[in-house]
Amino acid sequence: MSMYTRCPHCDTHFRVSREQLQASSGQVRCGRCHTAFDAFATLTSQPPAMPETAKGKPAPAGAAEVDTPNGPSRQEPSMALGELATTGSAEPEAARPERQPSVTKVDVLTLPDNLFGSASPLQSEGRRWPWVVGTLSLLVLIGVQGVYFFATVLAMQLPQLRPWLGDACVWLHCNVALPRMPDQLFVEASDLQVLDSSRPGEVLLTASIRNRALVVQELPLIELTLTDRLNQTAARKVFYPADYLDKSVDPKRGVGSNQELPVKLYLDTGDIKPAGYRLYVFFA
After folding, report:
1. Contacts by residues 91-96 (CB-CB < 8 Å, ≥ 24 positions apart)
2. For residues 165 and 163, what is the distance between their CA atoms, to the nearest angstrom?
3. How crowded is residue 271: how many other Cβ atoms within 10 Å of its Cβ?
4. What is the reported pLDDT for 111?
5. pLDDT by 10-residue block (mean), the chain, 284 residues
6. What contacts 117, CB < 8 A, 6 or more positions away?
7. In this structure, what are the phi and psi dihedrals at residue 27, rounded to the nearest 5 degrees?
8. Residues of the chain by 3-state class (helix, strand, coil), percent to 5
């Protein structure tokens, strides 16, 4: 069902729908004079009254011409139909009372949707701030989850954020691990030698591992494989940073960019008399 409302400033009538009024709480803006008003105050289900000339009816043949500033105009007689039927004959046009021209504006316009809700900034702001607070809260939550789950990746991509990420993880109970890039770790030099010829099972392994990455890396694990004279595997063992580092070095510091990592291992091979060896650097 169509409903109508009227602008109190310019008396222009508008056709509106229930959905439009509910969406804007009745606050609208006139599309003609741009006045903001409450559509519920003048809401009606009756269409506005329209003059007969606006309905497309031609003026009767007996209409009189009246001089106006804009030239002569025709006015129809104002005698009601009931009066004509009662008297049986029409009075002269000069005796007929003239009908006053209607001043009701009959332009029935449909309000565009973008006019609703724009008339009350206070109400718009009142509805907007919960969404703003909710959006900001979600962004903060996403940021906290990103730090908790991807702190190591963020620290690797943005090394300048590592101190800040470390402080945040103290509060979030997470861990900012050092990057692991084994393809950027290279064994620069190594040697396996017998310390005492009288005890051939006691050997010393020394090596130098260089980090060619642009960031600090986690200390790797080292796999040592001893081979016999036929180059077959005689023994294999994996060593952790605490095994091959000097006791004064903290393993959590890692190895810096373009820095060499010294390795020193005292081994007792027992009855195995190695003819050669292989070193493999990796991360668990």
Report:
1. 93/62, 93/64
2. 5
3. 6
4. 53
5. 84 83 81 86 81 48 38 37 31 39 47 50 63 86 80 74 78 80 93 86 92 90 93 93 86 88 90 89 92
6. 23, 24, 25, 27, 123, 124
7. -85, 115
8. 30, 30, 40
Give the tokens for residue 91. 């009075």
Residue whose token pair is 């049986």: 88
Architecture of domain 182-282: Sandwich (2.60)
Q: For the chain, what's the residue count? A: 284
Residue ranges of the domains in the chain?
Answer: 1-58+102-119, 127-172, 182-282
Measuring CA to CA, which residue among 213, 192, 282, 270 is closest to residue 241? 282
Which residue reads 């800040």 in tokens? 164
**What are the C-alpha distances in Å from 78 to residues 42, 49, 60, 102?**
30, 17, 11, 12
| CA–CA gap between residue 41 and residue 6 (Å, rounded) | 9
Q: How many CB atoms lie within 10 A of CB 9?
A: 13
